[in-house]
């Protein structure tokens, strides 16, 4: 996806996130992350923004971060300004270290922060007791692709220990993940999870399907999945549920 599109959406979702945090009681629990208060959520997002800004500034993963303002909303505003300042000072193709070996560019972090902000904006709206604002279909599709290929696929090869025993003797039959616009084939292997684009959403022994937005939220454990259809072999569906939970914890 074009970085300018992601940057534009980052701004829109940050505005929604900030507005929801400002409206919420700082002590209000975040239903989708019950260990967090609204203030904790704001501090977490601020910390993430500062960390990525420092990666770009230093050209390395930082050992420490600048002190953050004690007020969560001020910390959030400051961190966002620093992050977007770094993005503005660079081209998406400029070098920047990342945890994803195939993409060591500023563009990786533009995408990652746009998708991070979408999900935490949903968290903030839930904490404020507001209806969840819409997510554009193209952003949701990109988010699904990121979860499946980077977090489930790449993550299962780089941080295999995070997946416990799930890949010791996995069911290697294919599972399909499908929306009306795109489909992926997911296959758990002893060395990690293979994720590939698929021609159709019906080439597996089990199928997870739905519209892009509820599917994205379900993958990130932000939705109960009522609008996500799960059909086919139940053992394969259970394995996929465990894999995506391990990848997004």
TrEMBL record:
Coiled-coil ranges (or none): none
Ranges of residues in domain MDMPI C-terminal: 138-238
GO MF terms, alphabetically ordered: metal ion binding
Family annotation (SUPFAM superfamilies): DinB/YfiT-like putative metalloenzymes (SSF109854)
Protein name, as recorded: Uncharacterized protein (TIGR03083 family)
InterPro entries: DinB/YfiT-like (IPR034660), Maleyloyr_isom (IPR017517), MDMPI_C-term_domain (IPR010872), MDMPI_metal-binding (IPR024344)
Sequence ranges assigned to domain Mycothiol-dependent maleylpyruvate isomerase metal-binding in this UniProt record: 9-124
GO cellular component, one term: plasma membrane
